[in-house]
Write a structure and sequence with these properties.
The chain is mainly α and 206 residues long. It has 8 helices and no strands.
Length: 206
Amino acid sequence: MSEIKPKLFVREASGLVREYGPITAMSFMLTFTIGSGAHRLGYWAAYWYPGSNPLIAFFLVSVMGTLFCIIYALLMMAMPRTGGDYVYISRTLSPYLGFIGSWAYWVSATLALGILSFYGVEAFGTTISILGAATKNEAYMSLGYKLGYDLSTKFILSTVILIVFAILTILGPKVSKYTVLILFVIPAFASLIMLAAFAANTPAST
C-alpha cells in the first residue's frame, strides 16, 4: 500500500480565487463611511449642536473603532478559513445570537445604503449650488436647490444610484472592485485638496 501523506488542511481547496486584497477591503470601508461621516455629519454636528467639538467626537469613535477592528482581526486569525458575523458570533456565543446579529446588520446596511444615496444627491446639489454662486449662474443655483431640497427629485435619483450600483455588483467582484477603487481614489485626492484649501484660508487670514 502506498503511504498517504498528511495534508496541511483537512478540506480540499475549493478553487475559489480571492478577488479582494487589503487595499480593496480598506476602500470598501472608507467609501462607506467618509462621505457621510467626515464630510457631511462632521460639519453638520457643529451646526446642529453649537459649542460641540466634532474633532473630539471623531477621536473617541476612532479609539472604539480601533478596538473593534482588533477584535475582528483576532477572530479572523482564529478562524481563517471562514468569516462573517454569523460565524464569529455563532461559534463564540450561540447560533441564535449569530442569526440575530447577522439579520440586524443586513437591515442596518440596507437602511444605510438608502441614506447614503440620499446624502449623495444632496452633496451633488450643494456642489452645484456653490458652483452657481461662484459663477453667478442662476441655472446652476436652481438645479442645486432642486437636488438639495426637492424630496421627489432626491428620492428618484437616489433610487437610480442604488439600481446602478446593484447592477455593478451583479456584474462580478472585479467590476465592483475597480468601481470602489475609483470612487475611493478620486474623493481621497479631492479631500486632500479641500483640507489644503481650508488650511490656507483660515478665518484669521480672511
